[in-house]
Design a protein that fits this description.
The complex is a heterodimer of chains A (334) and B (501). By secondary structure, chain A is an all-alpha fold. Helix content of chain A is 73%, strand content 1%. Chain A is built from 14 helices and two strands. Chain B has three domains: 235 residues, 3-Layer(aba) Sandwich (Rossmann fold), CATH 3.40.50; 160 residues, P-loop containing nucleotide triphosphate hydrolases (Rossmann fold), CATH 3.40.50.300; 72 residues, no CATH class. Classes of the chains: A mainly alpha (334), B alpha/beta (501).
């Protein structure tokens, strides 16, 4: 009895775990339809999912404080484009400097988002919609560093090789970078006071304020982190695809948000775990890669099925959580 | 001078349009429990926020240990040893108990949080307050009473020299309140100065040595409690005499309105049999968490029961919703008025007219403003709601007046039976008498009233019949309230498995 009860309460405390079951089910179905899919594709899925994974870490911080950011992919394209143009002009040749610059640009835009939504009291959805239009529109403008997009020829070989052609334990640096960002986020959110304050502000902002937490500073910080992660993702994108333009990654911010929600993050703030987000991001990456390979039809059908699958996964997750909650109540013996 | 650890002299606080505090005084000795009393809206909460640094006073001085200080920030007040337990548990529902206890002063190794030590220390503090839950569960999964224990553990963890308890027992049952008293007395004996705000005179007389009364934002006086009578204090708080706190009228009971037969819901209650007749006030009491609210929520259609029958006005009810039950003539006044009972961003007027929108307040298919105001103005006068006008936002009212708006909302729908869940929780003595008066009037007009309450004096004095619940079951029914004592009810309310002693 007590053993069973502890399993259920474990499930309730870890809302994200039922999702692992859903992921396994999905992979099993795809593997039956496309034999050898998993063995052939896992590395590609990880590579393609790395950039979204990094953005998910930032998005988690913003969602935790009860806010949202839909400018992430615009920031990605902008940071990547500015850094790429500078490399094309010969201003920057150092690969590491590219990453530092990308993070700095992203953080600056994120901070502006945060200041407008907290001190300016404009809802985050509108603020980030506005900044996403502005920064995307800036990308092709000629007065901004002279070129309207970034081509492979403008990038140094060292930079293009940096994430793809260097490996450690069989995984490219691209994937390791995502793992590093996940670990840093986990450390920050679980083991620092500031990280816990993100949860506190999202969980009960009034209580946090009475305890002396500066709500606006925490909100600006969360948006700055989110912007920084999107800026970093921009440089990863540039190194991976060796090109970037105005329309790069358009609409992908919804995959970032979907991955977080799949991972059990509360969109009203206060609850969300990095483990859940990792599972959610993997799930989104697998859905993204597996459906086209199943060769069900043209690309429109593929998109349709992707949408259905996302909804199905979220619904199944919710149902599994509800069942475990009901079981827990039965444990009260009333 | 040095007799007091905390002195507040001539504190004034002005909000736009309102003087919330007008030249008030207060002082506190080490090792003393000093009660702060007054009606809702007298300025007690604002005063507490001035002490804890959440509000800055517009005039006056705060003297801490003989030194004049400015509490510019809640953190400064905390660092100077001032801790507060608030009326509404100010916790983070998504975070663990340990985190809530140590929020803001976590144990750390270098820059990183030391979870092991935090959970161990939290466990010790929880043992000190007789809590039987683990420090790792999330606070949102605890009952209100358990959350209050977390708040107390939090205050203990700060080693406060000055502890403010703002209505700490409002959400607690008798037994839990007594556990809290013991903790308060222990802290006092260790030299902590405690400021106690409570509407329960039992609390004030049982714990405090001195009492300071505020009325309408002004300082009325400070007295030694063993020198003053309760009636004198009530007079000071209200500014007039209250002749009879419990105005219970004898009424004829009529037809049966509600009957529950073996009603059960997994995890909450089992085999509940309760009935309510017209003209009757039925008390439903028990410890917090006994399942009282859950039973009545199932009756009202908020949740569906798993088995058993609900018979309302002769008709068996199946898969019902609150809207249907309201149309059938059942009103429900929820316990957490901020969360379930009121739309805080709406005006008093719109709140009151909401449940009757379709019937009383329309001309054809459009809402009639004048009918709406006619209704809400009438209710405002009837219940003496303190507000400039009915366009005032519900969120701007004090707790007692918010409760009156919720009552008005139910009455506007003209129900045959109403369920009141803790109708006087956190309500001052003047408003309490008004609410009892209204209940009594309604019963004499033939309404059936079911009152869920943890306050035993009100249960005994206001009810015609009393049901007691414990651990999801009805454990006693008292049909005659004459000669009934609090001990008899408590005996039925105690969980049988744990309380062998």
């Amino acid at each position: 009895m007590s053993k069973h009860k502890s399993i259920y309460s474990f499930l309730i405390e870890h809302r994200e775990l039922p999702l692992l079951g859903v992921l396994a089910l999905l992979l099993a179905i795809v593997n039956i339809r496309v034999p050898g899919y998993l063995a052939n594709s896992w590395l590609n899925v990880l590579k393609n999912g790395s950039i979204n994974m990094v953005m998910c870490c930032g998005m988690l911080c913003v969602l935790l404080v009860g806010s949202i950011d839909i400018s992430t992919t615009a920031v990605l394209a902008f940071a990547g484009a500015v850094a790429g143009k500078l490399m094309g002009l010969g201003v920057i040749q150092n690969t590491l400097l590219m990453f530092v610059l990308g993070i700095a640009i992203g953080a600056a835009i994120g901070a502006v988002n945060g200041i407008l939504m907290s001190y300016g009291r404009v809802i985050a959805l509108i603020v980030t919609l506005g900044t996403s239009y502005i920064v995307r529109a800036l990308i092709p403008m000629n007065w901004l560093l002279g070129m309207n997009k970034v081509n492979p020829t403008q990038l140094t070989q060292g930079f293009k090789d940096s994430l793809i052609n260097h490996e450690f334990l069989g995984l490219p640096f691209l994937v390791w970078l995502a793992i590093l960002v996940v670990l840093l986020t986990a450390l920050f959110l679980n083991y620092t006071r500031t990280g816990r304050n993100l949860y506190a502000v999202g969980s009960n902002s009034e209580a946090a304020q009475m305890r002396g937490v500066h709500l606006n500073k925490i909100r600006v910080l969360a948006h700055t982190i989110c912007g920084a992660s999107a800026g970093l993702a921009g440089i990863m994108w540039l190194a991976f695809y060796a090109a970037i333009e105005k329309g790069s990654a358009t609409g992908d911010e919804m995959f970032t948000i979907a991955a977080c929600v799949l991972g059990g993050v509360s969109v009203t703030g206060g609850y969300g775990k990095i483990t859940g987000v990792v599972i959610g991001a993997l799930m989104v990456a697998f859905i993204d890669s597996a459906i086209p390979q199943m060769q069900i039809g043209n690309s429109m059908i593929t998109e349709f099925i992707k949408g259905i699958l996302l909804l199905f996964a979220i619904l199944l997750n919710v149902i599994l959580q509800r069942i475990s909650a009901k079981q827990d109540l039965a444990g009260r013996n009333i | 001078m040095s007799e007091y650890i905390l002195e507040l002299n001539g504190i004034t606080k002005i909000f736009p349009g309102v003087k919330a505090l007008d030249n008030v005084h207060f002082n506190l000795k080490a090792g003393e429990i000093h009660a702060l009393a007054g009606e809702n809206g007298a300025g007690k909460s604002t005063f507490i926020k001035v002490i804890t640094g959440a509000h800055q006073p517009d005039g006056g001085e705060i003297v801490l240990n003989g030194e004049r200080v400015v509490m510019s920030d809640p953190i400064i007040a905390q660092e100077r040893g001032i801790a507060a337990i608030y009326q509404h548990a100010a916790s983070y529902p998504d975070l663990s108990v340990a985190e809530n206890i140590f929020a803001g002063h976590e144990y750390k190794i270098g820059p990183f949080i030391d979870w092991g030590k935090m959970n161990r220390e939290a466990k010790k503090l929880l043992e000190a307050v007789d809590a039987d839950f683990s420090p790792t569960v999330s606070v949102g999964s605890l009952s209100v009473a358990q959350q209050q224990l977390v708040e107390i553990a939090k205050a203990l963890s700060m080693n406060a020299k000055i502890l403010i308890m703002d209505e700490p027992t409002a959400a607690l049952s008798q037994r839990e309140a007594e556990a809290l008293y013991k903790i308060a007395l222990r802290l006092r004996d260790n030299g902590t100065g405690i400021i106690l705000i409570s509407h329960r005179f039992e609390d004030i007389y049982g714990l405090a040595e001195r009492v300071t009364v505020f009325r309408d934002a002004q300082y009325i006086g400070t007295w030694n409690l063993h020198e003053v009578e309760q009636s004198f204090l009530i007079h000071q708080m209200v500014g007039r005499d209250i002749n009879q706190l419990y105005p219970k009228k004898e009424t004829e009971t009529g037809e049966e309105l509600l009957r529950l037969e073996n009603l059960s819901r997994t995890g909450f209650f089992r085999d509940v049999n309760i009935n309510v007749k017209a003209g009757e006030i039925v008390g439903l009491t028990g410890l917090v968490g006994a399942g009282r609210t859950e039973v009545m929520e199932s009756v009202f259609g908020v949740h569906q029961p798993d088995s058993g029958k609900i018979i309302f006005r002769g008709e068996e009810i199946h898969s019902h919703t609150p809207t249907q039950m309201m149309a059938k003539g059942l009103g429900y006044l929820p316990e957490d008025r901020q969360k379930d009972g009121l739309l805080l961003q709406w005006s008093i007027n719109h709140n009151i007219s909401l449940p009757v929108m379709s019937k009383e307040c329309q001309n054809g298919i459009f809402i009639s403003k004048s009918k709406e105001y006619q209704l809400s103005e009438g209710m405002k006068d009837l219940l003496a709601i303190k507000a400039p006008d009915t366009d005032t936002l519900a969120g701007a009212l004090s707790g007692g007046n918010q409760q009156k708006v919720v009552v008005a909302k139910q009455l506007a729908a003209n129900p045959k039976m109403i369920i009141l869940d803790e109708p006087t929780k956190g309500v001052d003595v003047g408003s309490k008498a008004a609410i009892y008066e209204i209940m009594s009037d309604l019963a004499s007009q033939g309404l059936g009233i079911l009152m869920i309450s943890s306050e035993l004096p009100e249960v005994i004095n206001m009810s015609d019949r009393i049901y007691v619940m414990s651990e999801g079951k009805v454990t006693a029914e008292f049909t005659d309230t004459k000669g009934l004592t609090q001990e008899m009810i408590l005996n039925a309310a105690m969980p049988k498995t744990k309380e062998a002693s």
